[in-house]
Structures are given as C-alpha cells and as structure tokens.
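queue> pop job 88
queue> type: inverse folding (structure -> sequence)
queue> payload:
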C-alpha cells in the first residue's frame, strides 16, 4: 500500500491521498491528487517527486548529486537542513505504522477498505499528536 501525506509543522496530518499499490511511483500519485495548499506556502518533498510542481507553492527539495560530479559545501549543508526536517516526517510515517494493519500484509480486498484503514490510522496519529504534542519541526 502506498499513500502520499501532507503534514504541518506540528506533525498533524492535513491530507491523505488515495491508496495505491506499492509499484506506483510517488510523482504519479502526486499528479493524480489535488492538494489543498494555499498560495505562498512551502512544500518539502524528496527526490521521488522530482518534476512535481504546484503553482504559487515554493518547493523545497534536497540537491541531487550530478552524474560524475559532487555537491558544493553549501548544497551539502542545505541537504543536511532538509534531512533534519525529513526525519520528523519519517517519525510521522512510523507513528501511522504503529497500527500493524497498515504495515502487515492485508487481505481486505473490498473496494475502499484499504483507504478506510489508512484514514483511521492517520486519525489515530492525529489524536496522539493532539493529546501529546511533538513540538514544531521548524
């Protein structure tokens, strides 16, 4: 199962895409979803979304090492700063996967069931964050 999520700086999940099989590329999921982002906001994404763009939204991505070359010290430092925030996003994904039904093989094949399971697990994550705030990632 594969989903794309949007979170705010307090690790609260704001958006969950539809569930796709694991072989679907991240950018394909992003292109097929409509994101509720206001203009002049920031979107941090990894290299799996390279080429994805939203009008009026500033995209923050790590710098990719050029073939046969290397990154400048400034680019390496920028990548470290992005990584500090990305690790918090990975914590959110781990929090969702506390529900074993999400990370284990599921045989719930009825249409929409996997989406419902993911929505419930994201809602449980949001409840945990509401009851025990994690602090801002900025």
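queue> result:
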């Amino acid at each position: 199962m594969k989903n794309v999520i949007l979170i705010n700086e307090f690790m609260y999940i704001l958006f969950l895409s539809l569930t796709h099989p694991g072989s679907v590329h991240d950018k394909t999921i992003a292109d097929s979803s409509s994101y509720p982002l206001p203009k002049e906001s920031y979107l941090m994404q990894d290299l799996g979304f390279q080429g994805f763009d939203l009008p009026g939204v500033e995209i923050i991505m790590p710098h990719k090492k050029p073939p046969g070359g290397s990154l400048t010290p400034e680019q390496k430092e920028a990548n470290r700063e992005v990584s500090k925030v990305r690790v918090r996003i990975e914590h959110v994904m781990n929090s969702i996967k506390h529900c074993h039904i999400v990370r284990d093989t599921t045989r719930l094949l009825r249409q929409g069931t996997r989406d419902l399971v993911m929505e419930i697990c994201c809602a449980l994550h949001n409840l945990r964050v509401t009851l025990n705030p994690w602090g801002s990632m900025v």
